[in-house]
Amino acid sequence: MTDRRSAQQCRTMRELRQQIDAIDADLMELLALRSTYIDRAIELKQVEKLPARVPTRVAEVLSNARRAANDRGFDPELAETIWHEIVEWSIARESKVIGG
Question: Could you list the residue ranges that cross the membrane (predicted)?
Fold first, then answer.
């Protein structure tokens, strides 16, 4: 992650956009890293005979996202929506290999 200025320290839209772009790049790096864990989950779920979708885990991840967002002053509904998409993508990726 790169050095950050606070939003208030940005004096121009150009500076602000540079910070937003840097944050976006960091988010992509973290999402790419997260996907490597999904790939590992595929392997472990096959060994442990687990399905791609584990409803209790889905609920836990979404609840964690809402809580973390709320703790940071971020919109919990938006966080849940974003994480729902990430979780569904992950399950679809797993399902291609191990099924439901």
Answer: none
